[in-house]
Each structure stands twice: as structure tokens, then as C-alpha cells.
Write a structure and sequence with these properties.
Elements (H helix, E strand, L loop, with lengths): L2 H5 L3 E4 L5 H8 L3 E3 L9 H8 L4 E4 L7 H5 L6 E4 L9 H6 L3 E3 L6 H16 L2 H9 L20 E5 L3 H11 L4 E5 L6 H7 L1 E3 L2 H7 L2 E4 L13 H6 L5 E4 L8 H9 L5 E4 L18 E3 L8 H18 L23
Parallel strand pairs: 1-2, 1-3, 3-4, 4-5, 6-7, 6-9, 7-8, 9-10, 10-11, 11-12
Helix pairs in contact: 6-8
Bound molecules: (2R)-2,3-dihydroxypropanoic acid.
Length: 338
């Protein structure tokens, strides 16, 4: 590579520490500014590091808002390493002609596996009983120790029936569960039949589910989709699992319902304002808390990182798919991208 060719290569930022192989691969095409020490990059620091960059490989916690977009005239591609992209101001990116991408599909089954683990841990009080055991409280067996709620034969509710919701519904078949769902749009009849899932209103879903799983995208419309009013409609014996995004559940209202035993238990992988967790959730025993790890298997995180890199390379007109990034979330921008 000649010095002049090297100078003309686009500059990109990788906002968070990532598999070193991904940095190496991006370096074949770009001048890569990475953050392998994983320093906190937000606000002014993120803006400064993005200045002059053509692309960014971002994380779901990186807020790319209209103000930032307006300050970055060189930016041409924002590639999230996440299926969710509520961290991006999509209208602002689209208006500016900036391509935005995500990483769907590669995490579906891993996320559904984890959803199942969280559901079982919640319903069968796995972490609560383990903490009790570790604290030295176990003296002898008792017939009523940590009685939980069965999954088999119960009614599973799924709010948000996209790829991950459908993967969860498939798992429910093995447990002989009745599956109800609610979604912005109803699935084709054939898909409903294959999943053995019945479409109901949100109210029916909330009121009839023994276990309610949340897998819908976050948007202003889904903010506090499960708040005090919805929690009051749930069965006191029910469990609630949030795998989707913080802000879909009103965490304060949930903590009150759990403390007052108006809800049996909850499992949360995502939180409003994470990594901060509502302090009341930390003091109720009947909740399982995990740090946003639903997609965190070795294989899947590598696949997500690779797909985010594929998107960035193609969005900046390099590599075998130049100009055709695999997972664009604002395709209307392609004919008039920067
Ligand atoms: C996603 O992919 O959206 C996961 O929540 C990881 O951020």
C-alpha cells in the first residue's frame, strides 16, 4: 500500500472494546480508531473521537442523536453491534443521508435460550434459593422450601412476536404450554399454526399469562408498556421477564408489585437507565437480575461483531458487498446516501 493510498482510506471509530480479529479486519480497509482499553466514551468524548470519521461501529449504549449527527458532516455509516437500535436517532440519520445498520438473526436463538433460562430461574426461584444456601441457611429439607411456579402446562404470553418471540414460542412447545401473543401486526395464519400461538389483545395477554415474556422493540410508543396499570391486571401468581429493553417496564412500579406480592416474580436482563438498576429492585428477593447478557455466548457475540463489521465495510463501499450492507435499517437512505 502506498503512502497516498493509505492517507485516502476512510477513518472509522470502534466505540467499545471488541474481538481483536475484528479490528484487524477493519484495518484492511480503514484507518481504525479503536477503544480496546474500553474507556467510557460518551457525550463530548464520543463527539471528539467521531470528528472526521466516515463510519462508526457502535454499541447499543452509544447514543447517536440529532445534535451529534449535525456535528459530524463526514459521517456516512453508523453500524450497531446489536439488533436493537433505539440508541440511534433514525430520522436524523436518514435525513442526513447516513446509513444505519444492525445485527439481526445471528443472535435470535442464543437470546431465546437465555430468555428460557431467565424464565426458569425466575419461576423456580433458582437464584433466590442459591443465595439462601450460600448464606448458610440450609439446615434441613422442608416440604415448602422455595415453592415456585410450573412452566409445563401453563400459559406463556409473548409481547412482541418478532424473530426472538417466535424462537421463544418454539421452545414453549417442548413444555406443553399454551402460547398467547400480542404484536403490532398479527402473524400470518400459517405461522400462527406452526407456532401454535394465538393472537390476543394486549389486555388479554397481560391478564391471562402465567408467564409473560417481553421481546418488543423500545420506542416512545412502547415506553412503560408494562406499568402500574398493566401490573395490576396480571395474575398475582404470574412471572414477568424483560429481555427487550429498559424503559419498556416501569421498574419502580414493578419493584412495588414484587414487594407487595402482587406479582410472583420477575426476571430482568435490561433496565431503565442501565447500567444503573432501580434501587428498589436490588432489595426485593423475588427478582432475578442479569446485566444485559441475553446474546452473550462466545459464538453469537463473535457473529454479531463480524456482522457489524460486514455492515461497516459494505456501507463505506469496501469489501465484497461494497455499497450493499447486509442489514440496513433505513434502506430509503441508500439512493441518496452521503
Ligand atoms: C441487542 O442486540 O439489541 C441486544 O440487546 C444487545 O444490545
Amino acid at each position: 500500500m502506498t503512502a497516498s493510498a493509505s492517507v485516502s482510506r476512510p477513518a472509522v471509530l470502534v466505540t467499545r472494546a471488541i474481538f481483536p480479529e475484528v479490528i484487524e479486519r477493519l484495518s484492511q480497509y480503514f484507518e481504525v480508531d479503536h477503544n480496546q482499553p474500553d474507556e467510557v466514551l460518551d457525550g463530548a468524548a464520543l463527539r471528539a473521537r467521531l470528528a472526521g470519521k466516515a463510519g462508526v461501529l457502535a454499541n447499543a449504549a452509544d447514543r447517536i442523536d440529532a445534535e451529534l449527527v449535525a456535528a459530524l458532516p463526514s459521517l456516512r455509516a453508523v453500524c450497531n453491534m446489536a439488533v436493537g437500535y433505539n440508541n440511534l436517532d433514525l430520522p436524523a440519520l436518514t435525513a442526513a443521508g447516513i446509513v444505519a445498520t444492525n445485527t439481526p438473526d445471528v443472535l435470535t436463538e442464543t437470546t431465546a435460550d437465555f430468555g428460557w433460562a431467565l424464565l426458569m430461574a425466575t419461576a423456580r426461584r433458582v437464584t433466590e434459593s442459591e443465595h439462601w444456601l450460600r448464606a448458610g441457611h440450609w439446615q434441613r429439607w422442608a416440604y415448602d422450601m422455595f415453592l415456585g411456579m410450573d412452566l409445563h402446562g401453563s400459559t406463556l404470553g409473548i409481547l412482541g412476536m418478532g424473530r426472538i418471540g417466535q424462537a421463544l414460542a418454539r421452545r414453549a412447545a417442548g413444555f406443553g404450554m399454551t402460547v398467547l401473543y400480542h404484536n403490532r401486526s398479527r402473524l400470518p395464519e400459517q405461522t400462527e399454526q406452526a407456532l401454535q400461538a394465538r393472537y390476543v389483545s394486549k389486555d388479554e395477554l397481560v391478564g391471562q399469562s402465567d408467564h409473560l415474556l417481553l421481546v418488543l422493540p423500545y420506542s416512545p410508543e412502547s415506553h412503560h408498556a408494562i406499568g402500574a396499570a398493566e401490573l395490576a391486571k396480571m395474575k398475582p401468581s404470574a412471572t414477568l421477564v424483560n429481555l427487550a429493553r429498559g424503559g419498556i417496564v416501569d421498574d419502580g412500579a414493578l419493584a412495588r408489585a414484587l414487594r407487595e406480592r402482587r406479582l410472583f416474580a420477575a426476571g430482568l436482563d435490561v433496565f431503565e437507565g442501565e447500567p444503573d438498576v432501580h434501587p428498589d429492585l436490588l432489595t426485593v428477593p423475588n427478582v432475578v437480575l442479569t446485566p444485559h447478557i441475553a446474546s452473550a455466548s462466545e459464538k453469537t457475540r463473535r457473529a454479531m461483531a463480524d456482522l457489524a463489521a460486514d455492515n461497516l465495510i459494505a456501507a463505506l463501499d469496501a469489501g465484497p458487498d461494497a455499497g450493499r450492507p447486509p442489514c440496513v435499517v433505513n434502506p430509503e437512505v441508500l439512493p441518496r446516501r452521503r
